[in-house]
Amino acid sequence: MQESQFFKKLPANKVKCLLCNHFCDIAPEKIGICRSRKNENGILKSMVYGHPFDANIDPIEKKPLFHFLPGTNTYSIGTLGCNFTCVNCQNWNISQAKKIEEQNNDLPFLSPEKIVEDCLNSDCTSIAYTYNEPTMFADYALDIMKLAHANKLKNVWVSNGYMSDICLDAILPYLDAINVDLKSFDEKFYRESCSAKLQPILDNLKRLKEQTHLEITTLIIPSLTYNEDMLIDLANFIVDELGADTPWHITKFSSSISWKLQDSHSTSTEMIYNTYEIGKTAGLKYVYVGNLPGDDKENTYCPKCGELAIQRIDYEVERFDDNGECAHCGKNLDIID
């Protein structure tokens, strides 16, 4: 296990984890809420450092990021553990894993140097820290991110946005893009369905928007997050506090692969389209649907003239823009190449 840089010592050999907004106080030989950090003799250690559970080459659009290096591949890694307990989680076998220290005994150790080498050999332009919450392996991620930048690679996080200010301070100099799950605009939902709080995420979103490329995803769950008044508030928050140029991905929920909602209804296409209209009515320039393969609302259209700029079909990307500008009217499409 690797000593974490994100903690402080407390009396009686306890420690306070400083990685996320839970700020767990952890007694000796105990673990935090995320189950990926352990107090070993008064030292907080990461049980997942160097042990990715999964590593794959993915289209950047799968993160989803539609306005960052479109059409490129990203080398994606993730570990075990999460600081949320989302009832709808679709990666629950990873995020809610138990006995992480024991499971890691069966996983090979991959150094940050090895991850960067594998990325370079795979012809990817970026590394994505994804699958589970990357805050859980921030020490590992940070070491990789520094090496990635030294090798002209970009760094991408897919996150729930619950990291602490201290964690953000550490990663922001090396973070090039992030997609944050803004799961709801309702405090009760976060408390009861995720075991978390909403406000720290909203605060982090404002800071992230100022300092890196930000896109937002909201999973539309019929029983939990499909509420038109709430979604109007959420869309207005994006426009008013983050900017109308912030891409909003609204995705369809499938009950069959969820953690605790397998008896719930899956999201209807009508709900997705209604939410799409909420985003457009609020003034968002770029609203995208997810988990509706082939739908034309996965494409990027110029917000000024309406012409097709980027077409997406099953992660196949065809570009009709002119270096990030509309080829018809010259409008900036807010794309980072």
TrEMBL record:
GO molecular function annotations of the record: 4 iron, 4 sulfur cluster binding; catalytic activity; metal ion binding
Radical SAM core domain segment(s): 67-285
Coiled-coil parts of chain: none
Highest rank taxon of the organism: Bacteria
This protein's name: AmmeMemoRadiSam system radical SAM enzyme
Cofactor(s) recorded in Swiss-Prot or TrEMBL: [4Fe-4S] cluster
Record InterPro entries: Aldolase_TIM (IPR013785), AmmeMemoSam_rS (IPR027596), Organic_radical-activating (IPR034457), Pyrv-formate_lyase-activ_prd (IPR016431), rSAM (IPR007197), rSAM_sf (IPR058240)
Keywords annotated in UniProt: 4Fe-4S, Iron, Iron-sulfur, Metal-binding, S-adenosyl-L-methionine
Pfam family, any one: Radical_SAM
Cofactor-binding details, from the entry: Binds 1 [4Fe-4S] cluster. The cluster is coordinated with 3 cysteines and an exchangeable S-adenosyl-L-methionine.
Keyword 4Fe-4S applies: yes
CDD domains in alphabetical order: Radical_SAM (cd01335)
Residues annotated for [4Fe-4S] cluster binding in this entry: C82, C86, C89
